[in-house]
Automatic annotation (TrEMBL):
Catalyzes the specific phosphorylation of the 3-hydroxyl group of shikimic acid using ATP as a cosubstrate. It comes from Devosia sediminis. GO terms for cellular component: cytosol. This is Shikimate kinase. Binds 1 Mg(2+) ion per subunit. InterPro entries: P-loop_NTPase (IPR027417), Shikimate/glucono_kinase (IPR031322), Shikimate_kinase/TSH1 (IPR000623), Shikimate_kinase_CS (IPR023000). Pathway: Metabolic intermediate biosynthesis; chorismate biosynthesis; chorismate from D-erythrose 4-phosphate and phosphoenolpyruvate: step 5/7. Keywords: Amino-acid biosynthesis, Aromatic amino acid biosynthesis, ATP-binding, Cytoplasm, Kinase, Magnesium, Metal-binding, Nucleotide-binding, Transferase. Belongs to the shikimate kinase family. Its cofactor is Mg(2+).
């Protein structure tokens, strides 16, 4: 990276941090889209705290997400997820990565829209499937045909994720580049408001 690239990126991050004025940035999208990994880099650039709602839920429940699904069921998980996100959105200056289903829940979505600026990290089926196949910690994909299940979730959820304030493609390029794209998209969005 050249010196001027670095200066430009830093300048954009600073401009965005000012423009956001404390408002949380919330990343939404499918499992494997890169919300956690890109979110950490984004927070770093903006000088903000990074929080992952899945990790907060596990901490609050003292259980892993697969255990919560197994022992309490998905609807209880969703209710807990909304409570945790409502609590986290009271914080200023955060980047919050949400679980893949959080924004799909009507109440959680309304909360995010009211309190934060939202970013949909979008990726196609092949990219997502390759990424989620690296780990087996996604209870919703424990089916006979995980690829088919992912495809169905994409069909159901993409029209909803589209309601986020901005959409950024989470391609197989370095995660820092995706974070830079998020900064660019948010600056454009906030300029036109
Ligand atoms: N731009 C990228 N290029 C290559 N690999 C990536 C990229 N972004 C994310 N990944 C990889 O994809 C996997 C999933 O990423 P990550 O855990 O950030 O997704 P997530 O959206 O937080 O998923 P979940 O909703 O399940 O928490 C990780 O192994 C991560 O390193
Ligand atoms: O897409 C989903 O519904 C989920 C994604 C994960 O982040 C976890 O929140 C959980 O496994 C459910
Ligand atoms: Mg994650």
């Amino acid at each position: 990276m050249t010196r001027s690239d670095g200066g430009g990126r830093q300048g954009r991050a600073k401009a965005l941090a000012n423009r956001l004025d404390g408002r949380p940035v919330v990343l939404v999208g499918m499992m494997g889209a890169g919300k956690t990994t890109v979110g950490r880099r984004l927070a770093n650039r903006l000088g903000r705290q990074f929080i992952d709602s899945d990790e907060e839920i596990e901490r609050a429940a003292q259980m892993t997400i697969p255990e919560i699904f197994e022992q309490r069921g998905e609807s209880e998980f969703r209710a807990g997820e909304m409570r945790v996100i409502a609590r986290l959105l009271k914080e200023k200056d955060i980047v919050l990565a949400t679980g893949g289903g959080a924004f799909v829940n009507l109440d959680t979505r309304a909360l995010v829209k009211a309190e934060a600026v939202s970013v949909w990290l979008k990726a196609d089926l092949d990219v997502l499937f390759e990424r989620v196949s690296r780990r087996s910690n996604r209870p919703l994909l424990k089916t006979a045909d995980p690829r088919g299940t992912l495809e169905k979730l994409i069909a159901d959820r993409y029209p909803i994720y589209q309601e986020a304030d901005v959409t950024v493609f989470s391609r197989d390029v370095p995660q820092d580049n995706v974070a830079a794209d998020v900064i660019g998209a948010l600056l454009d969005h906030l300029k036109t408001r």
